[in-house]
Amino acid sequence: MEYSYRNRVQIIQKAQNSCFDIVIIGGGISGAGIALDASSRGLSVFLAEKDDFAQGTSSKSTKLVHGGLRYMKNLEFNLVHEAGSERAILYQNAPHIVFPQKMILPIYKGIGYSKWITSFGLWIYDVLAGVEAKYKKQTLNLTKTLKKVSLLKKDNLKGAIQYYEYRTNDARLVIENIKKSNEFGALNINYTKAINIEKPKNNVVRVNLKDQLLDKNYSVKAKFVINATGVWANDLVKQNSLSKKTYILPSKGTHIVIDRTKINLSTAVYFELNDQRMVFAIPKDNKLIIGTTDDAFNGDINDVFATQQEISYLLKAFNQFFNIELSINDVESTWAGIRPLVKGKTSDLNKVSRKEKIVFHNNNVLSVLGGKLTAYRLVSEKVVNKIVKLLPESKKYKKCSTKNIPLSGSEFNLGEIESHKIIAFAEQKFNEAYQLNTTTDEIYGLFYCYGKNIELIINKAYDLYNSLDDKKIALLEAEIWYVTNYEMVINLDDFLTRRTDRLYFRLNESLEQLSIIVSLMSKYLEWSEDTKAAQMKKYKEIANKSHF
Questions:
Q1: Residues 228, 361 within the same domain
Q2: Cα(505)–Cα(134) distance, integer angstroms
Q3: What is the pLDDT of residue 140?
Q4: H-type alpha helices, 322-439
Q5: In a shared domain, residues 128 and 195
Q6: Is 330 helix (H, G, I), strand (E, B) or coil?
Q7: pLDDT level of residue 72 (50, 70, 90 thresholds)
Q8: Of the residues 113, 133, 194, 380, which has the fewest C-beta atoms closer than 10 A?
Q9: Are residues 318 and 441 in the same domain?
């Protein structure tokens, strides 16, 4: 199903001539999840995102679909149960971007809870989260702990607990939801800003929008409007006089990336600090992610980058537990995002609940606030359930079925998803692409980005191969052809940051290939020389801010 900039005029024309059941403002994981849930039930849906899909918080997480171990401390047992159940569903529905990740939680004397209490807590966690037997926690003695993570400091180390979380590509999770909802008839458009929401008339709401690419203002009508703007929710509420309340408490989370030649850590480690914060060290390919901070944020939510103080905090935290001294010179790239926590009785960020809140401002406009990446599907179900009950002829709409809807790129027809089956599928794709002079790393990289849609990319690469002077770029051009034709890529940054994660994990390579990437994108997006220069300049500025 083609989904490109060429569709924009068609999408706008169709939107203007429709009255939707739902208009969603915000194209992060909440908006994308709601679009899929609603459209798959038969509701008509329009979604507008002011920047690119997942450009905010939804591309700047810790890249984990986790079960909420930290929620145990706040006794939020229902949240743990929900998160644990959702992990398993997401793994079944998007196994090319959601997969199990072994975690080691070291236990040190005088830091955090004792080994016994931690083990008991994780046992409860496994029960609440419904963890499969093969992924249940294991208690490790000192010898086994050091065998698994030899670089841990031995002083006061009592042992560790091994358990499992799930790693993901957060931005890909958003775009695969968007693409799947397209298949059910949803209209999703990026770079389209909501100017204002008019007061309902006869139970119909008019939303005035601006397409920021075409510089065109237009309006859409809907029975319900959903504010799914995350950290921008307060702004939308106040600008449209929906409420005088302040709903969102912004919290900044920063992550850093280290090359694993600096520290060859092959197992993820989750450690507790003296200030009661928890920090992850997660291997990804040949890189290591370290994060995250959790600090109140009062700055510009449209311009969020890591600071030297935050980077130093993470390095100090890491060095406290490992027999290595990482410095700021070892940091290859960074990212920082703002968590849209729901404001409550406490301002202590360690105690603020991560649970969502759904607020009706009037009969036709509601806000979806807070929530975790892990539970987005369940939150979407709750939101759409509320709306369906209020729609005329509500019985004609289907019940939620997203538990059993594979996301785009995950239609494998493999039965029960298991890691070895997915790996076998990726190996099959490599065998099909061997004549393209590619490598296993390149094919696996494409597969764990696009899933089954890699078939389109490989087929296109073969079509291009004979006509290219430089045969080595066949797959790269095919990839760019795919994202510009099927994933509504508009800018260089869309491709290098959110459709792929080159900005964070292949930064130097992206800069080395920048000229050829811009040239190839220009071929499919019809850029002028001035546009090409502007795109390169903008990406270099973003790269400079992401590299400290």
A1: yes
A2: 30
A3: 94
A4: 376-390, 419-432
A5: no
A6: helix
A7: low
A8: 133
A9: no
How far is 365 from 226, CA to CA, in rounded Å?
Answer: 6
217: phi then psi, degrees, rounded to nearest 5: -95, 140
Neighbouring residues of 488: CB distance < 8 A, sequence distance ≥ 6: 3, 4, 5, 7, 53, 178, 188, 189, 190
Residue 416: predicted pLDDT = 56
Work out whether the CA dihedral 410, 400, 21, 355 comes out positive or negative. Answer: negative
- Tokens, residue 308: 């030297």
CA distances from 346 to 73, 350, 353 (A): 15, 10, 9
Please report how the helices 474-486 and 514-525 are oriented relative to each other, as an axis angle in degrees rounded to 10. 40
Rounded Cα distance, 476 and 499, in Å: 13
Unique residue bearing structure tokens 């090319």: 96
Give the tokens for residue 174: 């958003």
pLDDT tens string 524-548? 999 999 999 999 999 999 999 998 6
pLDDT value of position 417:
59
Residue ranges of alpha helices (H) inside 391-501 are 419-432, 440-450, 454-465, 474-486, 492-493
Please report whether residue 412 resides in a domain: no
Kindly state the percentage of the chain with pLDDT values over 90.
74
- Taking Cα atoms as reference points, which of 127, 141, 137 lies closest to residue 162? 137
Closest CA to 102 of 340, 271, 267: 267
The domain total for the chain is: 3
What does the pLDDT average to over 237-246?
Answer: 94
Do both 423 and 513 map to the same domain? yes
Residues 358 and 235 reside in one and the same domain: yes
Q: Which two tokens stand for residue 439?
A: 């490598």
Nearest residue to 218 (alpha-carbon basis) of 185, 193, 242: 193
Rounded Cα distance, 484 and 524, in Å: 7
Residue 216 has which token pair?
A: 């065109």
In a domain, 348, yes or no: no
Give the Cα separation of 4 and 19 in Å (integer): 23
3-state secondary structure 44-99: CEEEECCCCCCCCHHHCCCCEECCCHHHHCCCCHHHHHHHHHHHHHHHHHCCCCEE
* Cβ contacts of 285 within 8 Å, gap of 6 or more: 441, 445, 505
Does 447 reside within a domain? Answer: yes
Query: Whole-angstrom Cα distance, residue 347 to residue 344?
Result: 7
Boundaries of domain holding 483? 419-546
Question: Hey, what amino acid is at 266?
Answer: S
Taking the C-alpha atoms of residue 181 and residue 167, their distance in angstroms, rounded to an integer, is 23
**Bigger pLDDT: 171 vs 130:** 171
Render pLDDT for 505-522 as a digit per residue (tens, 0 to 9). Answer: 999 999 999 999 999 999
The answer as to whether 71 is a domain residue is no
**Residue 307 token pair:** 């600071």
- CA–CA distance, 54 with 251 (Å, rounded to integer): 18
Do 150 and 203 belong together in one domain?
Answer: no
Burial environment of residue 339 by CB neighbours within 10 A (0 to 12, 13 to 18, 19 or more): buried
Nearest-angstrom CA–CA distance, 431 and 76: 47
**Calpha distance 542→537 (Å, rounded):** 9
